Amino acid sequence: MSATTTTGGRHFLQIPGPTNVPDRVLRAMAAPTIDHRGPEFAALGLEVLEAVKPVFGTTQPVVFYPASGTGAWEAALTNTLSPGDEVLAFETGHFATLWREMAERLGLRVTFVPGDWRHGADPDAARERLAADTGHAIKAVMVVHNETSTGVTSRVAEVRRALDDAGHPALLLVDTISSLGSIEYRHDEWGVDVTVAGSQKGLMLPPGLSFNAVSEKALQASKTAGLPRSFFDWQPILAANERGFWPYTPATNLLYGLREALTMMAEEGLPQVYARHTRHAEATRAAVRGWGLEVLALDEREFSGSLTAIWMPDGGADAVRGVILREYDMSLGAGLGKLADKVFRIGHLGHFNDLTLVGTLGGVQMGLTRAGVQVDPQGIQAALERLQQP
Ligand SMILES: Cc1ncc(COP(=O)(O)O)c(C=O)c1O
């Protein structure tokens, strides 16, 4: 163990999810598990089913699953599409690639618009592809709102406009797993048909819950969608939800946690939650540039509020993360897929404040230096200056 290693203090979990769970949420979950078919549970179920809607920007139903986000990805596809259907997706990074692979395994035909993993879904490419599809073979457009592998946020409202400009009836399916509760999102206003989300990032909960917010058009599509589904079928869940129940045993204690997390978000105010994330992302980028390093995202309209990926094209990112974990007890996100060892990712989402950011960036700066990466030590000062402003 090195002289600087400390075992005191809390571990810094600064991966872009799972995120740090607030003590209030942990305490809320540390309650006796109750009868999931009894009246106390029904009240909890009805409360959280309603309270979650503003975070999605919807008044329409939100389906909950005791599953990780991957389950909600599968639910979005199997409830709306049929074998052999064509879907349009965008190569924004590792998660877009995984979702595409799932779609193909389920028997869908995916047109995957190529990308460089430094930009979001291109609304112009969407407009072009949809306008060319005069026979309306494309049944759905899949977009990852915040690509967690790159720190790039796609402009979903503009993709919606592309669908409208082309007069195309395809469903719009959006993954908000690392944006919901961190980056402003409007399921209804943006005409999204299925929004996919998970518990373990902006919602400040442990992993284990995931969601589909569902439009009326998606509900109609589910009546004729031919992909096989059982556990993920919306219809029996929505029917049981009317009285606050689920057709199977729900994740009771995670729902206690969700109730508390939603209360915390309502107390802070959603606009304030989003502004906090934007501000911390700006301060992080100021530090990265101050160090003389590069942010992976290239288009400032697409900078992520929930994480920042730092570009180390010559490799060495894993060594930096290793030093930071060993010396400073902080976990940072690894480069995924083709970005392995070429980026490391700082999560600045969820239960997070100015001093958490200063500690995080301090650890990154010390770790970079210790790993032998030449950085300007004034980098963190640039972040502090940003944090002096509202
Ligand atoms: C954007 C995005 N989509 C999908 C997933 C997969 O979710 P899970 O790991 O919860 O199954 C993740 C996980 O990090 C993600 O960040």
TrEMBL record:
Signal peptide: none annotated. The keyword Amino-acid biosynthesis does not apply. SUPFAM superfamilies: PLP-dependent transferases. It comes from the Bacteria. GO terms for biological process: glycine biosynthetic process, by transamination of glyoxylate. Keywords: Aminotransferase, Pyridoxal phosphate, Transferase. Gene3D superfamilies: Aspartate Aminotransferase, domain 1, Type I PLP-dependent aspartate aminotransferase-like (Major domain). Residues 15-290 form the Aminotransferase class V domain. The modification N6-(pyridoxal phosphate)lysine is found at K201. The keyword NAD does not apply. Its cofactor is pyridoxal 5'-phosphate. GO terms for molecular function: alanine-glyoxylate transaminase activity; L-serine-pyruvate transaminase activity. InterPro entries: Aminotrans_V_dom (IPR000192), PyrdxlP-dep_Trfase (IPR015424), PyrdxlP-dep_Trfase_major (IPR015421), PyrdxlP-dep_Trfase_small (IPR015422), SP_NH2Trfase/AEP_transaminase (IPR024169). Substrate binds at R345. Soluble hydrogenase catalyzes both production and consumption of hydrogen from suitable artificial electron donors or acceptors. This subunit catalyzes the tritium-exchange activity. Belongs to the class-V pyridoxal-phosphate-dependent aminotransferase family. Heterodimer of a large and a small subunit. This is Tritium exchange subunit.
